Amino acid sequence: MNRLTKTALAGGALALGAWVAWGSYSSRSAEEVPYERVREIDGVELRRYPRTVLVETTASDQRTAFRRLFRYISGENERQDEVSMTAPVRSDGSDGESVSMTAPVRSDDADGSGTRMAFYLPAEYGPESAPVPTESTVRLVVEPPKTVAVVGFSWYAPGWRVERLEAQLLSTLDGAGIEPTAEPSLLRYDDPWTPPFMRRNEVAVEVAGAD
């Protein structure tokens, strides 16, 4: 093996090491929305989430919605507060666009007219203490306590894979006699630079009568 090849291999190993180190750091540095594990059914985990506060908007596409919410947590609010970003990102991906997954985001198709997206705020914020948005298209939302069923997976989350896992999740719940109360969502816990083999993803759906 010549010197050039050895140098290239050494450089590649260093780059891979730095990539993995970044993935490990980013996954540990973000605050996660808290929950209590209830039980597991055939690979599906049931969780109970407390009341949470979200900042929400509806736009023609995910990218526009994301930018509005990012401006809010960057200080575009009445107190000009910068709000920490947490995990996971929650989305429906109705328009097929990719957005930066570095905050807790929820999105779905708002009656076919666009994308509704929301960032979960850190646990320190309640309905009274959360900064009020200054943009008219952005609003605060309080989500009551809920029970959620999730199935996890790694690597990337293309539409076909998410749809397959949604079907698997709903089939398992149906067999256990547990009724979904909303449409399934995709949860992503890592930023775009995380190595795919280190990524943590989940398909989730709110359920009733799962205690």
UniProtKB/TrEMBL annotation:
Residues 81-110 are annotated as: Disordered. It comes from the Archaea. This is SOUL heme-binding protein. The lineage of its organism: Archaea, Methanobacteriati, Methanobacteriota, Stenosarchaea group, Halobacteria.
